[in-house]
Amino acid sequence: MTYELIQVETQDRVGVLTLNRPDALNALNAQLVRELGEAAQAFDQDPEIGCILVTGMEKAFAAGADIKEMKDKTYEQVFAEDFITDDWEVLAKLRTPVVAAVSGFALGGGCEVAMMCDLIIAGDSAKFGQPEIKLGTIPGAGGTQRLTRAVGKAKAMELCLTGRMMDAEEAERAGLVAKVVPAADLQTEAMKTAGAIAGMSLPIAQRCKEAVNIAFETTLNEGVRFERRTFHSTFATHDRSEGMDAFVNKRKPDWQHR
Ligand code: HXC
């Protein structure tokens, strides 16, 4: 498959998707979002890929949905298309763990795409925000929901209602990003994390990610019950036996991904 607005490459068991629309600071038009969704789904279905890394360019991860493409849409159109199309939500539904490496602007839909990933690693130049209110609209790809779950009501309200940007340090303090690294080291550091995840047993990492995500969907009791049953299910895998045997015999596990 050839893509125009993203780059797709594989490094060991990591599938790397790079947003590549530099003239528009990676503004997310329909084509870019479709390409991102297709390529992400292909990696998700590939048993040789243990982690997906989504990244952009130095100046911008993505400066939001494409305002030029959006500006003349009517209410009838957005309702009929159910705009934000399902393409946008693909990243949030993948089973393979997804890491976002964010440098520069992650605004509006760009911040929302980063938040659909399982964890965000930020370069120290990163700037996050939901500036839609300045355009006379509101976030439409999960911003009001995922940002609020990540940073709590007070800061989410402030960011969504003022449209101001938050730098990488503040985003880390607020719990939006897992770690901040010097911008120059972002790709190397993000690849280290993605590589570490890809080095685990994929079916176990899939179970682990699903269990963490359940925390955002349900009550504590139900979440703990889900976790326990999922924990039990790891005992049906080859790799659970292998991991514990390897520990006891002081050797590296040889994951079979089953
Ligand atoms: C379309 C965009 C764009 C966007 C930047 N560009 N962001 N085009 N949609 N979201 C284009 C500019 O028009 C310009 O193209 C080129 O990229 C470079 O941008 P500049 O503005 O010249 O760069 P700079 O002065 O460095 O400012 C960077 C910036 C600013 C602060 C990020 O571009 C900006 O405020 N962008 C919009 C951010 C935003 O409001 N995002 C939310 C979008 S709404 P030309 O051709 O003019 O040189 C949204 C809704 C999500 O995301 C809902 C779900 C879809």
Automatic annotation (TrEMBL):
Enzyme class: lyase
MF GO annotations: enoyl-CoA hydratase activity
Xref: PROSITE patterns: ENOYL_COA_HYDRATASE (PS00166)
Entry EC no(s): 4.2.1.17
InterPro entries listed in its UniProt record: ClpP/crotonase-like_dom_sf (IPR029045), Enoyl-CoA_hyd/isom_CS (IPR018376), Enoyl-CoA_hydra/iso (IPR001753), Enoyl-CoA_hydra_C (IPR014748)
Function field: Could possibly oxidize fatty acids using specific components.
Entry similarity comment: Belongs to the enoyl-CoA hydratase/isomerase family.
Name this polypeptide is given: enoyl-CoA hydratase
Source organism (scientific name): Rhodovibrio salinarum
